């Protein structure tokens, strides 16, 4: 039977806005001198919330842990369309926002529930011939993408104060929430983009059990070890 040490496992990090997911991996690797460190499911730089960091032999479980369903909350800004479908992109169009209520937004949001083929945005990390789409997008190159099957379990707005709607969404792995934001803006007739995003749940893991990155980096190796979810527990996680 393969032997595991106490650092073969995962820690749950509450990622702040700003750093990339890879930046978080690098910070953990340098701070604790761990050779093998990875993450399960990229969060865009300005997105916050749950990031599963795998250590040592647990990096082998990355694909398994990435496969779980996700829950996010965030805000959508209506009236402005951007090149990346989120707040990081360049403003492409600005239109007046028609009068809308939470009830009307939820009627539209309900039409997104279920299985659908979703077109990945050009500004994404998907690779075509080994080159990430976002690098091509920066050069003004638009290429044909293949739509992907995703499932939206629920999508509801909790609040709306023009032009910002606060929402919560539960979906399968690989769903681009910023594409949902863009599409609901199209249906509203005024355009929209994803303003903020926070990941709450990934598979069986919850951000409520995660440690803010700055706090994690202040831990001693012994204190970090106590927070590690062991390899064998990860291997049997849903």
Compact overview of the structure:
It contains eight helices and 15 strands. It is of the alpha+beta class and 238 residues long. Strand 10 (148-161) and strand 11 form a beta hairpin.
Structural class: alpha+beta
N-to-C SSE string, H for helix and E for strand: EHEEHEEEHEEEHEEHEEEHHEH
At the fold tier of CATH, the topology name of the largest domain is Pseudouridine synthase
Q: Outline the low-pLDDT stretches.
A: none
Bin the strand percentage.
25-35%
Count of discrete structural domains: 2
- How large is the radius of gyration? 19 Å
Helix content: 25-40%
* Mean pLDDT across residues: 91
Instruction: Give the CATH architecture of the largest domain.
Output: 2-Layer Sandwich
Largest sheet: 11 strands, mixed
CATH level 1 name of the largest domain: Alpha Beta
CATH superfamily of the largest domain: Pseudouridine synthase
Number of strands: 15
Oligomer: single chain
């Amino acid at each position: 039977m393969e032997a595991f040490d106490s650092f073969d496992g995962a820690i749950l990090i509450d990622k702040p806005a700003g750093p990339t997911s890879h930046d978080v991996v690098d910070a953990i690797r340098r701070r604790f001198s761990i050779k093998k460190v990875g993450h399960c499911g990229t969060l865009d730089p300005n997105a916050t919330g749950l990031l599963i960091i795998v250590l040592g032999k647990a990096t082998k479980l990355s694909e398994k842990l990435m496969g779980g369903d996700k829950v996010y909350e965030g805000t959508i800004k209506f009236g402005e369309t951007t090149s990346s479908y989120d707040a990081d992109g360049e403003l492409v169009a600005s239109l007046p926002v028609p009068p809308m209520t939470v009830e009307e937004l939820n009627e539209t949001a309900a039409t997104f529930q279920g299985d659908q083929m979703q077109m990945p945005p050009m500004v994404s990390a998907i690779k075509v011939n080994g080159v990430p789409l976002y690098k091509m997008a920066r050069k003004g190159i638009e290429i044909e993408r293949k739509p992907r099957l995703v499932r939206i379990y629920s999508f509801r707005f909790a609040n709306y104060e023009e032009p910002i709607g606060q929402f919560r969404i539960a979906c399968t792995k690989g769903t681009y929430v910023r594409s949902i934001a863009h599409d609901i803006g199209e249906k509203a007739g005024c355009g929209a983009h994803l303003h903020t995003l926070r990941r709450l749940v990934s598979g069986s893991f919850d951000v409520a059990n995660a440690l803010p990155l700055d706090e994690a980096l202040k831990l001693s190796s012994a204190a970090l070890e106590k927070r590690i979810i062991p390899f064998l527990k990860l291997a049997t996680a849903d």
